[in-house]
Design goal:
The structure is a single chain. It is built from eight helices and five strands; from the N terminus they run H-E-H-E-H-H-E-H-E-H-H-E-H. The chain is α/β, with parallel strands linked by helices and about 200 residues long. The chain has one domain: P-loop containing nucleotide triphosphate hydrolases (Rossmann fold, 3-Layer(aba) Sandwich), CATH 3.40.50.300. It has a five-stranded parallel sheet with strand order 2-3-1-4-5, sandwiched between helices.
Length: about 200
């Protein structure tokens, strides 16, 4: 931290904001290969929670890349910086008392550890969306896998950039064999039946 910076703290706490909203704030971090269902599951879950009167906000990889992180490339260093920025934004949402769903590929264990360090491991439920590369490529309406295989996209996860399977995720969802509804219900049950 720069020596001229002096972070301040509001007298209104996260607990105060959660009490005002009548809800607890935590993050649900969905990750997996492109095409594994992250965005679809995130938005279905967001709708379900919103209809239950839970203040929730979804942060999606493509949207963040078009705004907050549009200055970043897809090198490993920039991918890590992208996720660091997102984790800091999620931390602000949690401080505001808002439940946050993040859907990002998050391919490296070291980046997942960084996210937990920024948010606090008790504030984030990491959900690995497991799906084979072949199925993800078949689902790919944007033809990203095809472009990556033809070297038109560099550093594409699963093709020219490694995805590290998680060592100890909070939850694994098999999006290859389960319906969207079943996947959403599995995340919901895991997050809310545990309190």
């Amino acid at each position: 931290m720069h020596t001229s910076l002096f972070p301040t703290q509001s007298p209104i706490t996260r607990a105060d904001r959660q009490a005002l909203l009548g809800q607890g704030a935590f993050a649900i971090w969905l990750y997996g290969l492109s095409g594994s269902g992250k965005t679809t599951i995130a938005y279905h879950l967001e709708q379900q929670l919103f209809h239950e009167k839970i203040l929730v906000y979804c942060l999606d990889g493509d949207n963040i890349r078009n705004g907050l992180c549009r200055d970043l490339s897809f090198t490993q260093a920039d991918r890590t910086e992208n996720l660091r920025r997102v984790a800091e934004v999620v931390k602000l949402f949690l401080d505001a008392g808002i439940l946050c769903i993040a859907s990002f590929i998050t391919p490296k264990e070291s980046d997942r550890a960084m996210i937990k360090e920024i948010l606090g491991s008790g504030n984030v439920i990491d959900v690995y969306l497991q799906c084979s590369l072949n199925t993800c490529a078949q689902r790919d309406v944007k033809q990203l896998y095809k472009m990556a295989q033809n070297n038109r996209i560099l550093n594409f996860t699963g093709v020219s950039s490694l995805f590290e399977p998680p060592e100890q995720p909070s939850l694994v969802i098999d999006t290859e064999h389960e319906s969207i509804e079943d996947c959403v219900n599995a995340v919901y049950r895991h997050c809310f039946h545990k309190g």
